[in-house]
Amino acid sequence: MCRWAAYIGQPIFIEDIVSRPGHSLVEQSHCASECKTAINADGFGLAWYGDHPEPGLFRDILPAWSDPNLASITRQVRSRLFLAHVRASTGTATSRNNCHPFAVGRWSFMHNGQIGGYSQFRRDAEMMIPDALYPHRKGATDSEALFLIALGEGLDDDPKGALERATARMEALSRQKGTTPHFRMTAAFSDGERLYAVRYASDDHAPTLYHRWSDTRGGRAVVSEPLEAGECWEAVPAGTFCTFEGNGVRVEPFQPTMMKALAAE
Questions:
Q1: Is the torsion defined by CA of 34, 84, 185, 1 positive or negative?
Q2: Residues recognised as catalytic
Q3: CB contact at 8 A, 33 and 3
Q4: In Å, how far from its chain's centre is CA 109?
Q5: Are 208 and 201 in contact (CB under 8 A)?
Q6: In three state form, how does the secondary structure of 49-84 look?
Q7: pLDDT, tens digit, for every residue of 122-176?
Q8: Count H helices, E strands: the chain?
């Protein structure tokens, strides 16, 4: 399992989320408290939005706590919308191309969780990526495959529905050829204007997800684990899709099993 944090709001220094809080994302890279393993040392990454439609991207394979470039960049760069991730591999290699977030055009995407038995149906999943998007398949993770399949399902026009359809397809493969748990995830993604987040599992063990508005910062953080003890963070229920825009939150059911049932009719 991995840990991640995202932010949308007034521009802040990225370190205000990634490294300065008492239980920052860097702290979670070696002392996570709400996942299977406390260590998330198989690389890290940042995607941030500025003056261009496409996000900036910085990823590397060092543990987040030991990379001086990460500390320097997060201290100097301000952004109104960014995604940050520390990785714990579920089986694929520790390489820069396997580090999150992933980016295609204006979209960025990061994921925490697992798709059961992915190595047993990886070829089938690859075949679900449209030809036009396959050149963006740089790594070997289930996460990147899910992102590209969602783009092919219409992420530009229907973010929630596209991810539901992609999730349903991948979960169906796991049920046919993989193992349990078939699907557990939290994910965050953005088009540079809105931040989307989802919490879902095919069983009763969806990874944790929280969000919190800060009047001081004028923005909202969405995180795997609360960044400070004693703060009031709102837990996102399992089976939920959230859209964050401005200071608003829209919460909707996330129902890939419903999409799978409709497709079968």
A1: negative
A2: 2
A3: no
A4: 5
A5: no
A6: ECCCCCCEEEEECCCHHHCHHHHHHHHHCEEEEEEE
A7: 999 999 999 999 999 999 999 999 999 999 999 999 999 999 999 999 999 999 9
A8: 7, 13
